[in-house]
């Protein structure tokens, strides 16, 4: 089966979770090529249409898998190849983008939503599935805290809180995280920005940290939460995206209904007191969020879409 993945390439690379999903799909027997979109907003994306049509004609895919609503809308402006569109959160949570995502939903052969909250906002009537993106499980995620700190040059006697993103991304809401850490006892912990690290270094930081902190304004199904779970890092988060569902029942992880820095600081204290790896990796497996299992479900969706297309013709 030949799949063409359509996604943003504005940063000079495809999002790591898309690349990892593609690698898992290849192991299911798919042949996959990428088409990278460059430009901002609907008009910026529309400029890619001639090149996309040229790519489709040359590659002859069986299915196009578009990531994010605008990509899905663009991919559906040709009607020769069925399109599966995955909505990752910002394309549903942003009221300016939502109408375009709804157009993509109507045109797509199948729609994939990564969280229940985005599904409830989008309200699709048919041709959809709730399927969070998976993550890769690795032995590196099992690295003990002391060893991870040694490799990353962190102190053994200091508490570290890993922030769920870069400080300069507004939606990640770094001011709330900084206010939260300021509510802790003086010099009790250091907030680490998740920026400029390799994938391996991110994994080691998650293994090294005393807690992982998410204060985002909006999310879909944040990959970093699943990755922190796989590393056994205690998690403190506001109630955003599907975080509450992901960590439900997981000892050492806490979700606050409040965005009060003092409340979040109190939960960080509980995470510190937990003081060991969580069973997050086991929950990832139990919730079928290993990339291999997600890829299998996506492959079945592609097959279903092709059966429908063949029956229609």
What does this structure look like?
α1 crosses α15 (291-312) and α8 (145-152) crosses α10 (199-208). It is elongated and about 60 Å long. It folds into two domains: 2-134 and 290-312, Rossmann fold (3-Layer(aba) Sandwich), CATH 3.40.50; 139-286, 3-Layer(aba) Sandwich (Rossmann fold). It contains 15 helices and eleven strands. The model has no long low-confidence stretch (mean pLDDT 95). The chain is of the alpha/beta class. It has a six-stranded parallel beta sheet, with helices on both faces. The chain has a five-stranded parallel beta sheet with strand order 8-7-9-10-11, sandwiched between helices. The chain has helices spanning 16-26, 41-46, 49-59, 69-75, 90-93, 98-107, 116-122, 145-152, 174-182, 199-208, 223-230, 243-247, 261-274, 280-286, 291-312; strands at residues 2-8, 31-37, 63-67, 83-87, 110-113, 128-130, 159-163, 189-192, 211-214, 235-238, 254-256.
Seen as an oligomer or otherwise, the chain set is: single chain
CATH architecture of the largest domain: 3-Layer(aba) Sandwich
The CATH homologous superfamily of the largest domain is termed Glycogen Phosphorylase B
| Mean of all residue-level pLDDT scores | 95
The general outline is elongated
Kindly, what is the distance between the CA atoms of the first and last residues, rounded to a whole number of angstroms? 19 Å
Alpha-beta content class: alpha/beta
Tally of alpha and pi helices = 15
Low-confidence stretches: none
* CA-atom Rg in angstroms: 20 Å
Integer count of domains: 2
CATH class of the largest domain: Alpha Beta
Under CATH, the topology of the largest domain can be stated as Rossmann fold
Strand order of the largest sheet: 2-1-3-4-5-6
Main pleated sheet: 6 strands, parallel
